[in-house]
Amino acid sequence: MKKALFFALSLSLIAFLQIRKWVVESGPLSDSVTVIVPKGATSGMVAAVLAQAGVIDKPWLFRAVGRLNGLDKRIRAGEYEFTPRMSLSETLQKVTSGEVYYRKITFAEGMTVAQFVALLEENPVLSGEISEPAKEGELLPETYSFTYGDSKNSIIVRAKRAMVKVLTEEWEKRAAALPLKSPQELLVLASLVEKETGVEAERSQVASVFINRLKKGMKLQTDPTVIYALTKGERELGRPLLKKDLGTDSPYNTYKYYGLPPAPICNPGVEAITAAAHPADTDYLYFVASGDGGHNFATSLNDHNRNVKVWRRKNK
After folding, report:
1. How far is the C-alpha of 73 from the C-alpha of 80, rounded, in Å?
2. Residue 180: which of 287, 283, 279, 288 has the closest Cα?
3. Could you tell me which of 193, 247, 254, 284 has the fewest CB atoms within 10 Å of its CB?
């Protein structure tokens, strides 16, 4: 009897030690993988999903340990990333702690609302239809983190709040004597700067040209406003801007009408907004592409015409 009891206890101890070893030893996963745990999933369902993904190789042990420790009732829905060789214990801890996997979506500076929406629509992880309204210039281009199943509307709401914050801060810190009446006009100016140059060091100089022209009552004469008048920001123009396009009758056409356009022509980034709020102190009234990615600036029409000739020679 004693021998039988001792044998049974020995077997139990061996089994316990083996199970503990299985729980803490490295798992079978060789490459990182993400797994979606649906809402209302039982420990059995989760074990099956994890086994299919190669995260665990003993689903029965996952269920048993989860039930023994009461963890099966604390499993939280979401998308999780599992790294190579994660133990069963670490796997259980992850799905019960809510350490969900964060994805990212990046909106480039200068994108229009239509382009924002298109990028959201094609994302397979975000959910729902887009019903949150957004006007041109209201969305801050940035990289936004989100989790599986977050709504597309939630990204738009966050982008709008981020833009309000940046615009408010820059308006309050703006340089003195700017010919701008409101944060909205600052946003419009920033959208022109954003579309005219992608060179960070030039943004404040480009802004100074527009500011100087506004002060002198000159037309801004910037090509991106004509392109926006033709496309409404809904598509790429797909061809060079033609001379006849400069006569397009639209309030956005700064070759035809004085002052700023009635609204932004894109969603400018933080750097463009900062440049518009703090333009360089220059006498520049003109600029033209230099042919090497930047621009040449001029204070007189004669100097500008010379810069134009240089650009034309480089582009022959």
Report:
1. 17
2. 279
3. 247
What CA–CA distances, in Å, run from 310 to 148, 201, 203, 295, 305? 52, 21, 22, 11, 9
Distance CA 184, CA 171 (A): 9
Residue type, 267: N
**Two tokens at 280?**
């360089």
**Parallel, antiparallel, or unpaired for β 286-289 and 295-298?**
antiparallel
pLDDT, tens only, 51-83:
999 999 989 888 888 887 777 778 899 999 999
**Contact criterion met (CB below 8 Å) for 111 and 264:** no
Backbone angles phi, psi at 144, to 5 degrees: -115, 135
Residue 40 region, left (φ>0) first, then alpha (ψ -120 to 50), else beta?
A: left
Q: How far is CA 15 from CA 1, 4, 88, 142, in A?
A: 21, 16, 17, 54
Residues 6 or more apart in contact with residue 22 via CB below 8 angstroms: 58, 61, 88
Distance CA 251, CA 262 (A): 7
Q: Residues near 236 by Cβ (< 8 Å), separated by ≥ 6? A: none
Helix or strand holding residue 128 (H, E): none
pLDDT in tens, 157-202: 999 999 999 999 999 999 999 999 999 999 999 999 999 998 999 9
CA distance 315 to 289: 10
| CA-atom Rg of the chain in angstroms | 30
Q: What are phi and psi of 209, to 5 degrees?
A: -60, -45
CB of 101 within 8 A of CB of 125? no
- Dist. CA 271–CA 196, nearest whole Å: 13
